[in-house]
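Section 3.1 - Work completed
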Amino acid sequence: MSETEAIRLVVSDVDGTLVDKQKQLTPATIRAVHDLRDAGVGFTIISARPRSGMMPIAQALEIDAPMGAFNGGTIFHRDGTVVRQEFVPRRVVEGCSRWRTAWMRTSGSSPTTSGMPAPRPAGMSAANGSPRIRSR
């Protein structure tokens, strides 16, 4: 492998990947991250966790590269500096909330636990879930 093709950065998920079932870093994992660093390969993490839930891991692994919290919605450094944040637009959140409320009224259960197919919002095709194009 040429130098330009060499791996320069490893990005890992946290839960179910980097930590064990007790949500702890194992000595072997810590050693592996240090071995990467010693080999000149960067290491960072991304998680659905908030920054506060990632900081103990970042500290233990001495991560200096940017990390992604909230599934990448917040990019930050170990010193707490936020590099970038992306938010779901309020209208999308409100639409999801209305959809979930309508689902619960009609089915009597939560769409995430019922195992039933989710209803489609107005304007969505039942065949493939894509928006229908309406001509005027």
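Second construct:
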Amino acid sequence: MIGRNTTARGGSEGAQAATPYGGIDCVASGPKADVRGFVAALAVPGYRSILFPSLGRTFRLRLTNFDELRDYGPLQSFRPLFELDEPERTDAAVWQSPGTHVIRSAYTLDGINLADFGVFVQKGRDSLLRPAEVKQNLTREIATRDGRIYDTGIVRFNAKEIALKCCLKAVSTAAMWSCRDALFGRLTAPGEHTLNYRGKDYPVFYRECTGTRLIALRPGFILYEFELNLTVIR
């Protein structure tokens, strides 16, 4: 989900892990401001349904802590922290067009160009093209012999972790959510996935999404930045 310091992680067999939402920066001012009462309302057992009007979506969140509270006399600032225990799963096969021009990408996911999700990759090619680390074969060291005996009969490679810094561009919050949900719905679907870069296939699975940041939120232009962390299996 979009928020401050959010991280969305993948789970086993395509399940989505709970998501640390992060904090919501709040300010209270005026003679009727009641921070203590507001905190007490948030701390009532159960979940809170919080509407974000600018994002056009309601999230069912659980309070976990308060990061800080500062008193400036006429106003107070505070930051409640939340968890999203039940990420919403959507149909990854159907989604809206981003509604704005996105240059065709050199990357595809399971045969779908990332531009169809409104996504373009800013950087990350180096991590994809970097050779994987070589696995260490059987090694023996004998006290009465110099050096070591190493099995050179075969060379195998480890899986490698890659990070793609991406932006999602859309004409509206509805289009942005539709494209985002479709992308992550596909990434978290069971089984391995195929990331293709300039004609070469890389079998991958999704690990997590970090560094989410809403860069632009205005009529006709939404820009959402995030980093996709994937594991290349072989």
